[in-house]
Structures are given as C-alpha cells and as structure tokens.
Design goal:
This protein has 414 residues and is of the alpha+beta class. The protein folds into two domains: 133 residues, 2-Layer Sandwich (Phosphorylase Kinase, domain 1), CATH 3.30.200.20; 248 residues, Transferase(Phosphotransferase) domain 1 (Transferase(Phosphotransferase), domain 1, Orthogonal Bundle). Helices cover 35% and strands 12% of the residues. Strands 1-5-6-4-3-2 form a six-stranded mixed beta sheet. A two-stranded antiparallel ribbon has the order 7-10. β5 and β6 form a beta hairpin. α7 packs antiparallel against α9. The protein starts with 23 loop residues before the first strand and ends with a helix. It comes from Lingula anatina (Brachiopod). This is Serine/threonine-protein kinase H1 homolog.
C-alpha cells in the first residue's frame, strides 16, 4: 500500500495561512513496501466515529498480545515505526485505527491515528485543516503528520486522565468551584478556536479529556471530526451535524448558524455538570428535538437546591433560543461565575447527587436499550458496554430525522 522511503522528505509548502504543524512527511512514489499488510480493513462499526479516540488513553496499559502488536506494526509505514514504538491499540473505526505509541528517543507517549486516505478522506481532511492551525493549552495538540500513498498518520498528544464525567464519578468530591474551573478551561479553548474562525460543532462530555490522572490536570477539547473553518466572506454554516442532546435549536430548525452553536452545547454540559441530569432528555428523538426547539428545561428537583443563582444564570444565558442573545465565548469567559471561579458559591460537595444521577441515567438507558433490542442480543450487549458515562457515540443527528421533525411541526406546531 503506502509508498515508503528511508529518507524523511518534508511535504512541499502547500499548507494554508496560519498553519502551525508543518512537519508533514509526504508519500514517496518510488517504493511500495507495505503491500497488502498496509490495507486498512473496515472494522464493521458504524461510520468513522472511532476516530474520536485519538489522543485518549482508555487505561489499556497492558496493551494487546505481542502478536497483535506485530500485526498493527506491520500495517504502519516504516518511517513511522522508525521513530515510534507501537504499544497498544486504543481505538478503532471503520476507516481508522488509533494506537498508543512511545517516541524511541524521548520515551514520550503519544497517540497515532492511522486513517485510510480514500475512505476516511472527508473527516481527516477537515480535522487536519483545524489541528494544523491550533496550538493551545486546552486543545489536543497535533505533533506531526506522516503521509503514505493510502494512509495518513496523525501523531497527537496522549490524554491519559479520562473523560470529564468518568472523572467526576470516581473523584469523590465535586463543587461548583470545580465545575467553574473546568468550564473556564473549556471556554478559553473555545474562545481561541472561535477567534481562528473554527467551530467545533460536536462539543460533549466525551470530547473533553483530562491530560493526566492527577488532581491538578488541565482539561482539553478533542475530536474535530465535525468541525468547520470559516472561509473568507462566509459567516454562516448550513450542514446538519451534531449529537442529539447537545445540538443547538437553530440547527434543528435548519437555519443558517454560526459558531454560537458551540455555546449552546456548553450550556447543556454545564447543566449536566451541576446536576447529573440532562436539560433535554427523551428517548424519542422527535420529542427530544421539540424540547430543544422550545428551550424547555427547569431547575426542579432536590439536586438543584444547592446550586447557586449565579451558576443558573450562566446556564440561562447559554440555553437561549435566539443565538443573537446567547453569550459568545469571549463573553462567557467573563461571566462572574466563570471569572471569579464561583467565588460567591458554597463549597457544598455535589458529588453524591451528581454521580447518583449520572449512574442512574446510565443504568436506565442501558436497560431501555436492552429491552428495545431484546431480539438482537448481540447488539444489546454491545450497547450496554458503550453506555458508560452518558456516552453518545454512534448517536448522530440524521438529516432524515429533521425531515420527520419538520413534518411533525407542520401538523403539530410548537
């Protein structure tokens, strides 16, 4: 498959303006030494969402048996394996594999995402267009890129601290100050992206990863597979994309939208962070979307009595139907609850309530999925395994769902 050479040849300068990662090694058409072993077979999973595991370590420290390591190593361009030792497979998708590696000289761990250039073309091009331009403490960093004839290898920072909600459940203590601290890092990263004209379009808890397991770890924004970069003269986007519970109402209404859709998602994340519950929640997609289109949520329940008015004000200024009235990333960073690190809020430990609600929802969703697919036991088992911590992969907003929603609204307006 890939064309290789023992000499590392930098790609000619074809990168766009403002791009930071320029250490791209291009294919060499003189050799083809990987042959059939280099072909990226489809995994059978839906889409290419397994790519979101790039940059994350799912605590698979032991890794696969030596035979499997050898198998995956054989699929890699020799230029990559000359520089990095392959340690473990940590993610897979239909058109990608993600492995944990170690730099042979520095011993620094990284993640490498290996993507089929043809079948995964749309996503890897869009993700590379973003990651080549960004360098920020709170955004996963692209280190370098190798290209062969049929594959692209993206070397990225490795986040080992786990996902946002998994960390909360295991931590034992979580206060408004903790929530505010985490969200400030997210908002700083988001403000940076928006200043570059980049919209993430798929912010959700599993795309927020801790850099390391320590209590002082920073949090980082990851997975730019659905992101978009604003082109000169273009202000609005029209593509229907996102995850159901986190999608902004203007996308559901099929209106042109801006980067402010990311702030709606932050509002949803904040609501969950402080309560362990979803502001908009229904297994029926049409009913869920109707809730979102009405911005119908509340602070009812015991779990909200210990949350400060200022925290609720922050949520209220994000979960606004009119995007022109919603806070921008720059404004959200300056909101008193974020800017003061919830200084006026109590130090009440919200952990027990939040973790109980998160685990209850996880259990309820798992049982519901198992019941709905009782005739397909294999799929039920797979779904139960993936219900961890409000995970929503493989649950994308589909255009046909919005068509059905529009028909529903014609007969039953909001």
């Amino acid at each position: 498959m890939g064309c290789v050479s023992s000499k590392l040849v930098p790609e000619p300068p074809v990168l766009g303006e403002g791009e930071i990662v320029k250490t791209v090694y291009a294919p060499n058409d003189n050799n083809d030494r990987q042959g059939k072993n280099g072909r990226n077979r489809q995994s059978g999973q839906r889409g290419i969402r397994g790519q979101q595991n790039a940059g994350r370590d799912n605590n698979n420290q032991d890794g696969p048996p030596r035979g499997k390591i050898a198998k995956y190593k054989a699929r890699f361009d020799p230029r990559v394996t000359a520089k990095y030792d392959i340690k473990a497979l940590i993610g897979r998708g239909s058109f990608s594999r993600v492995v944990r590696v170690e730099h042979k000289i520095t011993k620094q761990p990284y993640a490498i995402k290996m993507i089929d250039r043809v079948q995964g073309k749309e996503v890897f091009e869009s993700e590379l267009a973003v990651l080549r331009r960004v360098k920020h403490d709170y955004i996963i960093q692209l280190i370098e890129v190798f290209e062969s004839k049929d594959k692209v290898y993206m070397v990225m920072e490795l986040a080992t601290g786990g996902e946002l909600f998994d960390r909360i459940i295991s931590k034992g203590s979580f206060t408004e100050k903790d929530a505010s601290k985490n969200l400030k890092m997210v908002m700083e990263g988001l403000r940076y992206l928006h200043n570059l004209g980049i919209t993430h379009r798929d912010l959700k808890p599993e795309n927020l990863l801790y850099y390391h397991p320590g209590h002082d770890s920073k949090i980082m924004i990851t997975d730019f597979g659905l992101s978009a970069t604003r082109k000169a003269g273009e202000m609005y986007m029209k593509t229907t994309c996102g995850t159901p519970e986190y999608i902004a109402p203007e996308i559901l209404a099929r209106k042109p939208y801006t980067n402010i859709v990311d702030l709606w998602a932050v509002g949803v994340i904040t609501y969950i962070l402080l309560s362990g519950t979803m502001p908009f929640d229904d297994e029926n997609r049409t009913r869920l979307y109707r809730q979102i289109l009405k911005a119908k949520y509340s602070y009812a329940g015991e779990h909200w009595k210990d949350v400060s008015p200022l925290a609720k004000d922050f949520i209220d200024k994000l979960l606004v139907l009119d995007p022109n009235q919603r806070l921008t990333a720059a404004q959200a960073v300056k909101h008193p609850w974020i800017a003061t690190n919830a200084a006026s809020s109590s130090n009440k430990n919200l952990h027990r309530t939040i973790s109980q609600n998160l685990l209850h929802r996880q259990s309820t969703r798992a049982n519901s999925t198992k019941s709905a697919k009782s005739t397909k036991s294999a799929k039920s088992t797979k779904s139960n395994k993936s219900s961890k911590s409000l995970r929503s992969e493989h649950r994308r907003v589909q255009p046909e769902e919005l068509e059905e929603l529009q028909k529903e609204l014609q007969h039953h307006p909001l």
